[in-house]
Amino acid sequence: MTDANWHDLGPIESLRTRELQQIEIGRTRVALSYSDGRFAAISGVCNHAGGPLGDGALDGEYVRCPWHHYKFHRVTGEGEPGYEDDRVPRYDLKEEGGRLYVNLTAASSRHKGKHDKHPLDRSLDRDPGGIRVLGISTTMMDDKFPRYSTSEALLDTAIAHARSQGMDARTIRLRDLSFRHCEGYYSKAAHACTWPCSITQMDPSDQLDRVYEALVFWADVIIVAMPIRWGVASSLYFKMAERLNCVQNQITIRNRIMLRNKVASFIITGGQDNVQAVAGQALQFFSELGCQFPQFPYIAHSRGWSAEDMENNVRYVQNSPELHEAARELVARGFELAKRLLATQELAEMVRAGRKAAGLHVVKLVSNADDHER
Ligand code: FES
Fold first, then answer.
1. What CATH number is given to the structural domain containing 65?
2. Which of 24, 155, 181, 276 makes a 20 to 30 Å CA pair with 97?
């Protein structure tokens, strides 16, 4: 039998005022609940991804995790009916002299129940084979009455060229997929934004798993076709980019770079201008994902601010052998770089300082010259 380790939580009167609270005592986190005139305490650390259970909500006799809504019985720590063996520790409480005490020696142990691994939750090893090219179209249109999309037409040319050169190539049209917007798990906490994406894990009908699968595991060369909408990329592009936060966030929380040796390039077209803004965002974003870029990583076309004659813009792209040749050359540049990257040794682990979300603690001040030389 383990020794009791009682800790004073404070006056009962004030602890009764909150239905659920997260309390930290040293390194122990406790979810203290008060309901139907009875206190109860279980671990404040969720079995799933470590969410702060005490910051969640009571749902009947269960504590609901604020991150992805797993539930644990507020008294026993057991999971919901059907998942009882997925349990968090519970803690004994006692009331003395108007004060509440918790025994920090847990009264039961943590046990993680078996949950099937999501298919995307696997090693990042590249399957053998030649260079693979993924086109992603971010254009929206009514496919029953399709129109000519200049960015998608150039993407089609690029993909056809890749195939003609013996590459394995495929296109994903985002408009064909039914997928949810990012719902801001990262905004709750960096660790609440998981890989695979929290939405992908919870909603089997969400089809962005096809983009994750192709981007993270399959492709060597990625070509994103981007129409310009009011000076920025399309809403579909941003809908995808926000959902790719979980890929970038793996670097932030685990230093795990999911896109390695992958080449990104872009086709940007619009009736109005702002090629540079769209390219700037895309280059920045895909660089943060870990992608590399060939020389001249994007091709673009716009007739500028004054000429808002979209029919002519479409005709121009349809009838421009040079732009279609440029799309073929874009693939060729990506192919050459991907080939070289795959033949090269992996980079050694990089210093995090100066990179996104390195953390202020990584940038240390040094007090003398000796420290510089270390
Ligand atoms: S449900 Fe608690 S961390 Fe995911």
1. 2.102.10.10
2. 24
